[in-house]
Amino acid sequence: MAERTPATMEEIARHLGLPARFAAAVLEEDAVARADRRPGLIRLRIVAVESPNGAIEKRPLDIIAGRNLVVTVHDGELEALEPLQRELQSDSRLGELDAANFVDIMVDACIDGYFRELESIERNIDALDDLALRGRTPASAVLAELVRMRRRIAVLRRTLTPHREAFGPLARPDFELHEELGRPWPGLVDRLERAIEGAENARETLLGSFDIYMGRAAQHANDVMKTLTIISAVLLPAVVVAGVLGMNFQLPLFDDPNNFWLVIGAMALFASALLLVSRWRRWI
Predict the structure, then answer these.
(1) More confident residue, 117 or 68
(2) Band of pLDDT at residue 249, cut at 50, 70 and 90
(3) Which helix (H) or strand (E) holds 72?
(4) Collapsed DSSP state (helix, strand, coil) of residue 262
(5) Tell me, what's the pLDDT at 186?
(6) How far is the C-alpha of 201 from the C-alpha of 195, rounded, in Å?
């Protein structure tokens, strides 16, 4: 394990006889997976992910492997490798593995990090569905969470996909890793594909959450319009009666002040009748 500094890489290259091209490539700071090979030696860059503050961070990990040789280079501690480090401390049999199998274990540990992120995203999506169904959370907050989750999934997908080109040669017979480093685990590429499929499924699930939110928003709008329509319908007879009685003509009805309460009672009767009919027809 080494830090990604020019001095460190120069020392490693000198002691292990590594090509200058390998040492220079390790110092590149781009977080894109790739594989490089020369006789007796390979360099594999994989990208682990962490989310200490909720936002996904890319952590490049360079692995240089030869016969009975594995060197890892990364910046700071990697959360994805912590379970492997604990296992190395407790299981002495891991020292019997060849270089290819040891590389497989480290790569698999990094892929586990993607699965943990996907599980976290799925839990957040479930919580988001509950918020959307309850309808008590402001729409801006729900939309902001949807956008944040979408960006997390997009980062995972864009980070995972280049690993296909990096892992692909490890599974090809013409790469002939087994002659120099040992035979790699054939299920590594399949595990990567499952991780990519998991990211695609998370994206589809998030789109379903957006549909739930839009359906809930449409239902809320319908409820509001329904309430306003019922209020308008209930007040309409009173408006009509008041408009008719407010016309500029004289009737004996206006001679008796007690008729005012008769008119008010008629308005209440019409409103009650409309409410009863709406209830009977199950409009409300």
Answers:
(1) 117
(2) low
(3) strand 69-73
(4) helix
(5) 66
(6) 10
Map out the domains of the chain as residue ranges. Answer: 6-220, 222-280
Please enumerate in sequence order all residues whose Cβ is within 8 A of that of 173, keeping only pairs 6 or more positions apart, or say none: none
Mean pLDDT computed over every residue of the chain: 78
Q: Is the CB of residue 198 less than 8 Å from the CB of residue 153?
A: no
Q: Is 254 left (phi over 0), alpha (psi -120 to 50) or beta?
A: alpha
User: Looking at residue 2, what is its pLDDT?
Assistant: 58
Q: Please, which pLDDT band fits residue 172 given cuts at 50, 70 and 90?
A: low
Quick one: how far is CA 208 from the chain centroid?
12
Strand order in the sheet with 41-50: 34-38, 41-50, 57-66, 69-73
DSSP, residue by residue, 27-53: T------EEEEETTEEEEEEEEEE-TT
Residue 127 confidence (pLDDT): 85
Pairing of strands 57-66, 34-38: unpaired
pTM: 0.71
pLDDT of residue 162: 86
Helices (H), the chain: 6-16, 20-26, 82-90, 99-134, 139-160, 163-171, 188-245, 259-280
List CB contacts of 106: < 8 A, sequence separation 6 or more: 61, 63, 70, 72, 81, 84
Residue 122 has pLDDT above 80, yes or no: yes
CA–CA distance, 14 with 16 (Å, rounded to integer): 6
Report yes or no: 19 and 9 within 8 Å, Cβ to Cβ: no
Q: How far apart are CA 44 and CA 261, in angstroms?
A: 91
Token pair, residue 229, equals 């329509």
How much is the pLDDT for 175? 52
Q: How far apart are CA 279 and CA 274, in angstroms?
A: 9
